[in-house]
């Protein structure tokens, strides 16, 4: 006979759950109604508050047969159980270990979103005591039919999460294009505010140095009359001179269901962007950040025709104009591209400001919204050189599954890449809190290659844990005519085809002297993935990558393939 399980701890603080008080998980929320509408699952809500009325959402799925799952819940779970711990089964459960009221209360206290009870093979029906307990404690209770496996429920949740993430990416992409187009209109500032208000479904305002809105678009949510005063207080937080400490990059608050946020505009002109929305959707912060960057360009203090041309050139770059047509307006013929990512942040100083970094380097801030390689190993698109507006995407990807039913811990979000452009005669120096990758000087027509150089230099700097790495051309490049070198590179690397993962893995692996761990860190992949890719490269190229002569020749060819 198995030993008796100790009685469940009553609701209270003695054993806090792992996720008690934790921030919401980074995964997209799945409405409980979407799971109930999934015909293949056949789920049915039989107790607790109506999911449609409460708007209940699920962030992940957890399976547990413990009498007290509270210490192991993170919050937001759909907890699945077959009721093995409930007395009256053949599982040998001890009646002293189970109390339906305590069980439901503990799940609610841990932040569980809902309870799914599998009918069969342990129970033929959901116990009446559990139904009543879920009704009393406001816990949605779903009946899982015998034909539906718990792994099938988990798989459906992950599929719905993937669909939500794709919808978020589409929304952000379309909205960014709308914002960029509005910034090119003759009435750029009011047009951009109107576009932002429409995309966010709320209110957007440009605040002047006196803290009063100078231009507005949309309408403040009617349910909270004090939202305008609360938003003005947030604007004071993000404008220079608001306090003794450094100015934060953004400030947010919630007032009676109204979501408020304020963003300072780059420069010393004391302007800020304020937004108020009746709901907070994924991607709203990204869209407001893009609007703040564009407004910074459009409202920067002008010092004559040259400064006006500079702002116009930057907006045209963001809209996808050809660099060779735009960069002459910025007053230089040769340029250096810099990729930067936050290395560390001192809590008392707040997050490093891309605009402050640009000012310290004497450079032009081209993109601080996350565009670039994102640390995933691919070459970044150049500053609007690809012919399309700059588009950024969320950096955190869904975590892989350890089993079909249990998700792995989500990967930490990757800090966005800040891209800067500065005249070639200004050599960037290391900056506190930042990791920098610097390209070789390039003309307007070679910015695509220079941007790729800066991306690779940043990855090498992060892998080597150094503050700044500059791209350096190989000495052999000067001994071979460029056309002949390019032809040789194409012929030598032809077996790799157009596979960017293979090419970039081989390039990074060679640059780090064959180190599996440092290459994996630079590409943000597992070391086994690096080994598999390098082995595939060796097989396709039919060569021995341990031969130093082979490595030298491949490195020369890869340096010609940007």
Q: Can you lay out the helices and strands and say which pair or pack?
A:
Elements: E1 30-31, H1 32-36, E2 44-47, H2 51-54, E3 57-58, E4 60-63, E5 77-81, H3 100-109, E6 114-118, H4 128-137, E7 141-144, H5 150-183, H6 188-200, E8 203-207, E9 213-218, H7 227-238, E10 251-255, E11 258-264, E12 272-277, H8 284-299, H9 305-318, H10 323-326, E13 334-342, H11 354-361, E14 364-367, E15 418-423, E16 434-438, E17 442-443, H12 447-464, E18 468-470, H13 482-493, H14 500-511, H15 516-523, H16 527-541, H17 548-559
Parallel strand pairs: 4-5, 5-6, 6-7, 16-18
Antiparallel strand pairs: 1-3, 2-7, 8-9, 8-12, 10-11, 11-12, 13-15, 13-16, 13-17, 14-15
Helix pairs in contact: 3-4, 5-6, 5-8, 6-8, 12-15, 13-17, 14-16, 14-17, 15-16
Explain what this protein looks like in three dimensions.
This protein has 562 residues and is of the alpha+beta class. It has four domains: 119 residues, HprK N-terminal domain-like (Udp-n-acetylmuramoylalanyl-d-glutamate--2,6- Diaminopimelate Ligase, Chain: A, domain 1), CATH 3.40.1390.20; 136 residues, Dynein light chain 2a, cytoplasmic (Beta-Lactamase, 2-Layer Sandwich), CATH 3.30.450; 108 residues, no CATH class; 85 residues, Orthogonal Bundle (Arc Repressor Mutant, subunit A), CATH 1.10.10.2840. Strands 13, 14, 15, 16, 17 and 18 form a six-stranded mixed β-sheet that branches. The protein has a five-stranded mixed β-sheet with strand order 2-7-6-5-4. Helix 3 links the parallel strand 5 and strand 6. Helix 12 crosses helix 15. The radius of gyration is 28 Å and the shape is flat. It starts with 29 loop residues before the first strand and ends with a helix.
């Amino acid at each position: 006979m198995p030993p008796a399980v100790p009685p469940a701890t009553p609701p209270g603080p003695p054993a806090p759950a792992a996720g008690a008080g934790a921030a919401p998980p980074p995964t997209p929320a799945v409405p409980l109604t979407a799971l109930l509408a999934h015909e293949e699952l056949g789920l049915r809500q039989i107790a607790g508050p109506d999911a449609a009325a409460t708007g209940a959402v699920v962030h992940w799925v957890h399976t547990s047969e413990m009498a007290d799952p509270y210490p192991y819940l993170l919050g937001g779970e759909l907890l699945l159980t077959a009721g093995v711990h409930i007395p009256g089964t053949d599982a040998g459960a001890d009646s002293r270990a189970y109390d339906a009221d305590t069980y439901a209360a503990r799940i609610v206290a841990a932040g569980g979103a809902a309870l799914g009870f599998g009918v069969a093979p342990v129970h033929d029906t959901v116990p009446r005591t559990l139904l009543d307990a879920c009704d009393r404690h406001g816990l949605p209770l779903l009946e899982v039919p015998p034909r539906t496996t718990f792994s099938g429920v988990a798989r459906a949740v992950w599929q719905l999460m993937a669909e939500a993430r794709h919808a978020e990416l589409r929304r952000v992409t379309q909205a960014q294009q709308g914002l960029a187009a509005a910034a090119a209109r003759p009435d750029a500032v009011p047009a951009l505010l109107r576009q932002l208000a429409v995309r966010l479904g709320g209110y957007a305002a440009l605040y002047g140095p006196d803290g009063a809105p100078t231009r507005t678009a949309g309408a403040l949510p009617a349910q909270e009359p004090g939202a305008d005063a609360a938003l003005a207080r947030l604007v004071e937080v993000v404008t220079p001179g608001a306090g003794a400490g450094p100015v934060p990059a953004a400030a947010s608050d919630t007032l009676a269901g109204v979501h408020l946020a304020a963003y300072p505009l780059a420069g010393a002109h004391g302007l800020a962007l304020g937004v108020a929305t009746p709901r907070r959707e994924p991607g709203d912060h990204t869209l407001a950040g893009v609007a703040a960057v564009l407004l910074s360009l459009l409202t920067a203090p002008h010092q004559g025709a040259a400064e006006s041309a500079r702002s116009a050139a930057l907006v045209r770059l963001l809209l996808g104009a050809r660099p060779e047509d735009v960069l002459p307006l910025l007053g230089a013929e040769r340029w250096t591209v810099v990729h930067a990512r936050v290395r560390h942040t001192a809590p008392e100083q707040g997050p490093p400001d891309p605009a402050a970094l640009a000012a310290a380097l004497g450079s032009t801030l081209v993109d601080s919204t996350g565009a670039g390689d994102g640390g995933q190993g691919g070459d970044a698109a150049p500053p609007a050189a690809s012919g399309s507006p700059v588009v950024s995407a969320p950096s955190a990807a869904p975590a892989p599954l350890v089993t079909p039913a249990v998700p792995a811990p989500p990967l930490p979000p990757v800090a966005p890449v800040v891209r800067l452009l500065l005249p070639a005669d200004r050599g960037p120096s290391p900056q506190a809190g930042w990791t920098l990758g610097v390209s070789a000087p390039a003309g307007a027509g070679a910015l695509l290659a220079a941007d790729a150089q800066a991306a690779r230099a940043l990855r090498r700097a992060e892998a080597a844990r150094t503050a700044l790495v500059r791209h350096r051309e190989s000495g052999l490049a000067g001994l071979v005519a460029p056309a002949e070198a390019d032809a040789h590179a194409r012929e030598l690397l032809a077996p790799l085809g157009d596979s960017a993962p293979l090419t970039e893995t081989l390039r990074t692996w060679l640059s780090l002297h064959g180190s599996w761990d440092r290459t994996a860190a630079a590409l943000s992949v597992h070391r086994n993935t690096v080994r598999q890719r390098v082995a595939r490269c060796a097989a396709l190229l039919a060569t021995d990558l341990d031969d130093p002569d082979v490595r030298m020749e491949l490195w020369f060819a890869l340096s010609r393939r940007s």
